């Protein structure tokens, strides 16, 4: 179950200048709301209920994708000339941050995350990547090896994720069955509304995810 302090700590780190999503709310609104203890309790109750029921409301699965032209482009006749920006409901972002913080703590404290995983984790940074890479290179030099580095980006990793396999992994790690059921529901049935430049195309709805 989530606590009052966990919720407050998450909100305090959020930038008030973030663009609002479909619910038109910003972090400044949430920070103002949680001055009232009753509202903090309501947020916590909703988050705990989502986990307890293994359900992510459809309201939180709706987003707006704004497609804007990239700067310094001479032509705009290719999809690569545009950048999509996804705007989420602020309440959804709040609950996701709380759940993410707790899940990461559980994973790290139980050594479920490989030591070479450095991105997106607390107390790990780009400097840690540099130190690890330097260490590997020096180990190679000691063995009179010629070292080289290959960097690549995994495009469209999340959409290609096997959701069923993820659910099985969560079960194998010993997480409560309700957590597994929650993520199974969380990952499917998402919808986004694309908003294009008025000179390109009208907006339309697209279903994303599996479900």
Structural description of this entry:
It is a single chain. The chain has 211 residues and is α+β, with helices and mostly antiparallel strands. It has one domain (4-208). The chain has helices at residues 4-12, 27-33, 37-53, 90-109, 126-142, 163-172, 177-186, and strands at 62-69, 82-88, 190-195, 204-208. It has a 4-stranded mixed sheet with strand order 2-1-3-4. It is globular. Residues 199-211 have low confidence and may be disordered.
Features:
211 residues; alpha+beta; four-stranded mixed beta sheet; 7 helices; globular; disordered C terminus
Shape: globular
Number of helices: 7
Query: How many angstroms does the end-to-end distance come to?
Result: 28 Å
The strand order across the widest sheet is 2-1-3-4
Tell me about the biggest sheet? Answer: 4 strands, mixed
| Low-pLDDT residue intervals, each spanning 5 or more residues | 199-211
Summarize the topology.
Elements: H1 4-12, H2 27-33, H3 37-53, E1 62-69, E2 82-88, H4 90-109, H5 126-142, H6 163-172, H7 177-186, E3 190-195, E4 204-208
Describe the structure concisely.
By secondary structure, the protein is of the alpha+beta class.
């Amino acid at each position: 179950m989530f606590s009052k302090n966990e919720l407050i700590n998450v909100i305090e780190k959020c930038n008030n200048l973030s663009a609002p999503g479909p619910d038109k709310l910003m972090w400044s609104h949430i920070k103002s709301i949680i001055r009232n203890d009753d509202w903090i309790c309501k947020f916590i109750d909703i988050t705990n209920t989502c986990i307890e029921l293994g359900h992510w409301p459809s309201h939180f699965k709706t987003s707006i994708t704004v497609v804007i032209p990239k700067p310094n482009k001479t032509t705009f006749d290719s999809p690569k000339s545009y950048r999509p920006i996804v705007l989420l409901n602020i309440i959804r972002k709040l609950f996701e941050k709380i759940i993410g913080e707790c899940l990461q703590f559980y994973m790290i404290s139980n050594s479920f995350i490989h030591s070479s995983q450095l991105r997106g984790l607390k107390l790990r940074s780009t400097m840690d990547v540099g130190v690890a890479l330097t260490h590997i290179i020096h180990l190679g030099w000691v063995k009179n090896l010629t070292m080289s580095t290959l960097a690549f980006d995994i495009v469209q990793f999340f959409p290609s994720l096997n959701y069923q396999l993820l659910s099985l992994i969560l079960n194998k790690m010993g997480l409560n069955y309700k957590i597994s059921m929650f993520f199974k529901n969380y990952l499917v049935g998402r919808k986004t509304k694309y908003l294009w430049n008025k000179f390109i195309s009208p907006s339309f709805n697209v279903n994303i995810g599996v479900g």
